[in-house]
Amino acid sequence: MIDQLEKIEGLQIVAPSLDTGRELLTEDALEFVAALHRKFNNRRKELLEKRKQVQESIDNGKMLSFLPETENIRNSDWTVAPIPEDLQDRRTEITGPVDRKMVINALNSGAKVFMADFEDANSPTWENCINGQINLYDANRRQVDFTADSGKEYKLKEDPAVLKVRPRGWHLTEKHIKIDGEEVSASLFDFGIYFFHNAKELLSRGSGPYFYLPKLESHLEAKLWNDVFVMAQNYLEIPQGSIKATVLIETISAAFEMEEIIYALKEHMAGLNAGRWDYIFSIIKKFKTNPDFIMPDRSQVTMTTPFMAAYAEQLVKACHKRGAHAIGGMSAFIPSKNEEVNKQAFKKVKQDKKREASIGYDGTWVAHPLLVPVAMEEFNNVLSEGKVNQKDDLREQVEFKADNLLQIEIEGGKITEAGFRNNINVAILYIESWLNGVGAAALYNLMEDAATAEISRAQIWQWLHTGGLKFANGNPIDFQIYEHFLNEERKAIEEMLGEERVASGNLNKAVRVFDNLVKSQEFLPFLTLLAYEYLD
Ligand SMILES: CC(=O)SCCNC(=O)CCNC(=O)[C@H](O)C(C)(C)COP(=O)(O)OP(=O)(O)OC[C@H]1O[C@@H](n2cnc3c(N)ncnc32)[C@H](O)[C@@H]1OP(=O)(O)O
Ligand SMILES: O=CC(=O)O
Ligand SMILES: [Mg+2]
């Protein structure tokens, strides 16, 4: 196999091991990935450059707004292509990493859809990415099973959730595969391998190749995905429109282009999802030290704060106007063994799902199998007999208004020393976990992943680099206090992790990554880009 792979002109695999994944890294699959890369990688890089230009113009005082040049898209009549039967009812979707046991648990959870995640919930080690592909390949053929070290056996039940796959975002590369000397786009690699091996199989089973698209910043990036889909469907000679995608609206710039994004993908569009955590991160990242955009403690930014509520409402309107589904986001509260904490978590998730259902969402995300019935119940309550979504609710009462998205005011919002310390602690613990190959973690009774950790590190950067900010108790926020808290939190983390885990070295690396991120004069766009340099 290795000999064969080396025969593909221009393709080089620099993976730590090819023992796993050989069956998927076939010559024809890799040729497909190489073809995608050669056709689309330059455009991907140009669009990443364009992100930098948008950032520069915001830095120079230009405010985001709805685009004048695409007004006709917003003002004309059109709808998305028909959405397949198995994507009509999405009232509860579970998400999770592509780990084999979790894939089985998620598919068996009773949720309508499972989003298998190569992005926020995944640490992109070579093993995780390749084993993830194998797990999904097996899941689609109903041959995924697993025996835990404890002897517990896992098998797929009848009628599992419909599978959707979230490839990594446009900003990432897969460093283990080089094409013509360049690292392959991680999006094209994850998409390409999955699509190549599973599209026909899924169509033959009455389903299809379904995707979630993360971290888009503009409709031009959606157009790039659309062109990838067109080429991929031609390549496998399957009907155009077989692929269906749900786009995460999780950047502030994408919130100004929701209809344009739906339009760009309208032949392949299944809906939009309100990716709240990356969205908060994006607001901090885009407006940096602008005094009108300083956020208080992370715990005070909720879906009921006005700018988040406006984003959530406008998303439903954009979708329903165009016949697409609107899917709610992830509450970070997760079940706990502590009875009181557990009770509160269920209460919080219930409130969150009730609110989403009441503003017209067609379904939502949950982080854990035990939360499936909670979300299900709230959506069942708004879906009367025979109704599977709320797309007929056109949200006439909602207005698309830039000001509502941009007024980042939180009544009673405060930056506290506890919030500052918590951000340091959680971001370092998460990066340490990520470097250990675990991309989603339960920390202090909350789900943490790449998006939530980004908020923590971005807040520390914002609070330090704005200059002159004070804690609620009047103490100044500066680098001196940061160093002091960092030392204390590091000691607390060492105690929590124990000697053996600390000795493995990843805590040191995590602290280094975190410290570089928050001290860098320039705001580094993604923590995973820096941390990837330290990953195997
Ligand atoms: C911002 C965003 O992008 S949100 C989307 C991305 N993030 C995610 O998808 C996070 C999804 N959730 C998770 O990964 C997990 O729930 C965690 C890491 C937060 C907590 O996991 P754990 O600590 O294992 O939870 P817990 O011990 O309660 O798990 C109990 C059982 O449920 C399973 N489980 C928990 N969450 C999930 C899930 N999302 N999917 C499938 N199975 C799950 C566990 O594997 C375990 O199975 P077992 O009893 O067979 O061993
Ligand atoms: O991907 C989801 C998010 O909230 O970020
Ligand atoms: Mg996200």
Automatic annotation (TrEMBL):
<keyword id="KW-0012">Acyltransferase</keyword>
<dbReference type="InterPro" id="IPR019830">
    <property type="entry name" value="Malate_synthase_CS"/>
</dbReference>
<comment type="similarity">
    <text>Belongs to the malate synthase family.</text>
</comment>
<protein>
    <recommendedName>
        <fullName>Malate synthase</fullName>
        <ecNumber>2.3.3.9</ecNumber>
    </recommendedName>
</protein>
<dbReference type="InterPro" id="IPR006252">
    <property type="entry name" value="Malate_synthA"/>
</dbReference>
<dbReference type="GO" id="GO:0004474">
    <property type="term" value="F:malate synthase activity"/>
</dbReference>
<dbReference type="InterPro" id="IPR046363">
    <property type="entry name" value="MS_N_TIM-barrel_dom"/>
</dbReference>
<keyword id="KW-0816">Tricarboxylic acid cycle</keyword>
<feature type="domain" description="Malate synthase TIM barrel">
    <location>
        <begin position="163"/>
        <end position="408"/>
    </location>
</feature>
<dbReference type="InterPro" id="IPR048356">
    <property type="entry name" value="MS_N"/>
</dbReference>
<dbReference type="InterPro" id="IPR011076">
    <property type="entry name" value="Malate_synth_sf"/>
</dbReference>
<keyword id="KW-0808">Transferase</keyword>
<dbReference type="InterPro" id="IPR001465">
    <property type="entry name" value="Malate_synthase_TIM"/>
</dbReference>
<feature type="domain" description="Malate synthase N-terminal">
    <location>
        <begin position="10"/>
        <end position="71"/>
    </location>
</feature>
<dbReference type="InterPro" id="IPR044856">
    <property type="entry name" value="Malate_synth_C_sf"/>
</dbReference>
<dbReference type="Pfam" id="PF01274">
    <property type="entry name" value="MS_TIM-barrel"/>
</dbReference>
<dbReference type="InterPro" id="IPR048355">
    <property type="entry name" value="MS_C"/>
</dbReference>
<keyword id="KW-0329">Glyoxylate bypass</keyword>
<dbReference type="Pfam" id="PF20656">
    <property type="entry name" value="MS_N"/>
</dbReference>
<comment type="pathway">
    <text>Carbohydrate metabolism; glyoxylate cycle; (S)-malate from isocitrate: step 2/2.</text>
</comment>
<feature type="domain" description="Malate synthase C-terminal">
    <location>
        <begin position="414"/>
        <end position="534"/>
    </location>
</feature>
<dbReference type="Pfam" id="PF20659">
    <property type="entry name" value="MS_C"/>
</dbReference>
